[in-house]
Q: What sequence folds into this?
């Protein structure tokens, strides 16, 4: 996207657009900035009212302490990686063909099926928490990384299907007709034609699913104990019963949020293209 | 030998009938165009020939063999699409060679054939480019190359030039016609552009509301349109028709338009007096004169180079005359229009069929 469009309209309009964008940037980036600052402040400077931001109070101690006590955080990050990668990969592997079938193949009542898939996401998590807990504990899979991954898959899969179905619908039918005339079957068309041109939406869906799983707190809390704890739970433990070590908690949060932010920056263009409409028009 | 034959082919989508009872026999090597306005069933017919659309009833034969249930590949057809339908992530070379690769052809043989086709279409310097780096005309040539490389028995074109600008369209038209003259592959071409159809085809099937209105050579379609629809659809500028009634005058039938009696052409079918008709003549058979013919008044003058189209008002409504070269006439000028009686087209007003 270019800012050329900002050139249109009067100075008032331009100012308003810039102010609007500035508010949005502060709104989105402000908490992250505050997170980083507080991870670098000493506890006593941080809990002062207002916080004392003089340079002398900045320190890396929080990070060294957190990394020093790395066992918990390291395991958390490892668990989060496993859970997020597993649920993302499987959601894509199952979701892409499902989305293609619902978008393009003569599946009876495809719209109804797609809606049902979306409807599974309309229940609040709390409503299924207890039955899910009972089910998983009866299976003896509490505190198991992969069982958590399967739970995450259950909400990542519908989202992936919906993102990809929207894109597949916009692919010109001519491409598939051309492939049919070229002697390419349905599976080969999907593999050689549809998937390669769908890299932007696949990336967008993957990042979306990964972040969802990486940040998830509620189900991780009820379905894990020690062994399978993910990053959000480890961070939460810095809030103790008698004292919350804010600096260390923030440092841990910075460490855990970094991969997600890197991921978003790295695939920025793909994500924007993936979500933008009409990429295949014309 | 008949390459393609459609026998009473119909296609319905739910309660909507896209094609009804289409019958058409195309000898080997012929170039046939399905011409019609959008929604007339021409693309549906082409898709059924290609095997991209099932036939609801009727049969499609190729080389005498029924192919209704065969896939596009088994029918050995190649198709060029309106939106080119190039694979956007593949280079020109891969686009052209993809179909051969999918048939498991040896890579070096694929390359040899791709290069040969690319050379014949002047695409050799662009083999490594992506479709998005090509102009519309180049993309369409790649699409044609992709069809050519297969060396198919039948070529199908679905409005291949409608996304190109006018001058490029003319050039591609000539290229496709030359290609057909060179290779002689049986071809079906779909378009809504009557001029394109006239210039490129051996025969034209004019379609309307899912039916073939008339099948004939460009000359037959133009000079002897079977119906009012064909007459008004074909030809630019469009033929204007005036309502009239058949009357007997001194023992011969004439067509009365208002107070004007127009003699019917000699070859007119016998018609009884009182029959409601519509009459008109192609603009090149309407001449401006100083006193002969019907009185008229100039409404509009449109020079197009070789000719000038003069639109006239007369008793019967509108009349268009095509005058060679440039003419200077002010709107409102009173004049006379003389219609060549041997080229008068008379249609039954109720059925739309040609009587003359």
A:
């Amino acid at each position: 996207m270019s800012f050329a469009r900002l050139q249109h309209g009067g100075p008032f309009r331009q100012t308003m657009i810039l102010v609007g964008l500035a508010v949005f940037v502060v709104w989105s980036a402000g908490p992250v900035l505050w997170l980083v600052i507080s991870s670098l402040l000493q506890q006593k400077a941080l809990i002062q009212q207002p916080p004392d931001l003089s340079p002398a109070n900045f320190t890396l101690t929080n990070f060294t302490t957190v990394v020093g006590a790395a066992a918990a955080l390291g395991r958390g990050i490892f668990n989060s990686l496993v859970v997020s990668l597993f649920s993302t990969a499987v959601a894509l592997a199952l979701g892409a063909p499902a989305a293609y079938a619902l978008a393009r193949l003569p599946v009876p009542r495809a719209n109804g099926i797609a809606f049902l898939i979306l409807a599974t996401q309309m229940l609040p998590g709390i409503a299924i928490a207890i039955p899910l807990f009972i089910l998983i504990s009866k299976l003896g899979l509490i505190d198991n990384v992969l069982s958590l991954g399967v739970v995450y898959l259950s909400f990542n899969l519908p989202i992936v299907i919906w993102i990809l179905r929207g894109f597949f619908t916009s692919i010109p039918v001519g491409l598939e007709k051309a492939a049919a005339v070229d002697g390419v079957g349905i599976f080969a068309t999907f593999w050689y034609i549809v998937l390669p041109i769908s890299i932007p939406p696949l990336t967008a869906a993957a990042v979306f699913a990964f972040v969802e799983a990486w940040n998830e707190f509620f189900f991780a809390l009820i379905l894990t104990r020690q062994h399978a704890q993910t990053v959000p739970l480890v961070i939460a433990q810095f809030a103790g019963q008698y004292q919350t070590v804010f600096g260390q908690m923030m440092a841990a949060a910075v460490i855990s949020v970094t991969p997600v932010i890197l991921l978003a920056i790295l695939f920025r263009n793909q994500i924007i293209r993936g979500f933008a409409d009409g990429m295949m028009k014309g | 030998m008949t390459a393609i034959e459609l026998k009473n082919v119909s296609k319905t989508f739910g309660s909507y009938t896209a094609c009804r009872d289409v019958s058409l026999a195309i000898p080997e090597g012929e170039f046939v165009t399905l011409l019609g306005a959008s929604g007339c069933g021409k693309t549906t017919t082409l898709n059924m020939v290609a095997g991209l659309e099932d036939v609801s009833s009727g049969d499609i034969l190729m080389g005498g063999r029924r192919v209704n249930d065969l896939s596009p590949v088994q029918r050995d057809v190649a198709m060029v699409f309106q939106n080119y339908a190039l694979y956007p992530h593949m280079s020109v070379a891969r686009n052209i060679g993809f179909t051969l690769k999918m048939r498991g052809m040896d890579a070096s043989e694929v390359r040899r054939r791709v290069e040969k086709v690319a050379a014949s279409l002047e695409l050799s310097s662009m083999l490594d480019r992506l479709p998005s780096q090509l102009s519309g005309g180049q993309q369409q040539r790649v699409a044609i190359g992709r069809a050519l490389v297969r060396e198919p028995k039948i070529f199908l074109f679905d409005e291949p030039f409608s996304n190109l600008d006018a001058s490029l369209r003319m050039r591609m038209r000539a290229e496709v016609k030359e290609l057909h003259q060179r290779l002689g592959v049986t071809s079906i071409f779909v378009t809504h552009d009557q001029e394109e159809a006239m210039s490129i085809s051996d025969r034209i099937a004019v379609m309307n509301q899912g039916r073939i209105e008339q099948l004939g050579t460009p000359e037959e379609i133009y000079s002897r349109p079977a119906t009012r629809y064909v007459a008004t659809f074909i030809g630019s500028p469009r033929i204007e028709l005036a309502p009239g009634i058949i009357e007997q005058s001194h023992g011969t039938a004439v067509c009365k338009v208002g107070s004007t009696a127009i003699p019917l052409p000699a070859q007119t079918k016998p018609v009884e007096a009182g029959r409601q008709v519509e009459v008109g003549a192609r603009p090149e058979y309407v001449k401006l004169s100083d006193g002969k013919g019907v009185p008229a008044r100039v409404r509009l003058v449109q020079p197009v180079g070789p000719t000038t189209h003069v639109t006239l008002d007369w008793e019967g409504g509108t009349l268009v005359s095509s005058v060679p070269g440039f003419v200077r006439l002010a709107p409102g000028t009173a004049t006379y229009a003389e219609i060549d009686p041997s080229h008068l087209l008379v249609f039954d007003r109720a059925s739309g069929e040609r009587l003359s």
